[in-house]
Amino acid sequence: xxxxxxxxxxxxxxxxxxxLALEHTVVIEHDAGPIAADYRGTVTITTAQTGTxxxxxxxxxxxxxxxxxxxxxxxxxxxxxxxxxxxxxxxNVAKGTRSGWCETNAKAxxxxxxxRREEFRxxxxxxxxxxxxxxxxxxxxxxxxxxG
Length: 148
Prior knowledge:
Blueprint: H1 2-12, E1 20-28, E2 35-50, E3 63-79, E4 82-99, H2 102-115, H3 117-144
Antiparallel strand pairs: 1-2, 2-3, 3-4
């Protein structure tokens, strides 16, 4: 019975709601005209319950392993009639372990992730910089393709 409860708790706590939202806007000058790109980052925390409840008089080995993933949605206006969308992700921007049940540690984990806000912002800005080349290539392609 305890194993069933442990398995159900692990499944229920596997993915929590996004806890941190980030935004960034950039305008890049291009021969075909300025490219306006909006980036919206979302952090999602996943948890995994490990260990077992200890028998009477014995210590518990329960632990909650967690990791935070950054997903960045990009929407850009490349030309007058061309819109571009892309999703960039970075797994394990932050991760850790807390002793006990994942369910009871949810708020503490959210607080840890919120405390690393600057780390997530740096990761988002690195993804924005990586995306710059792809965005310029899309703009070049859109400018070279005749519309009409």
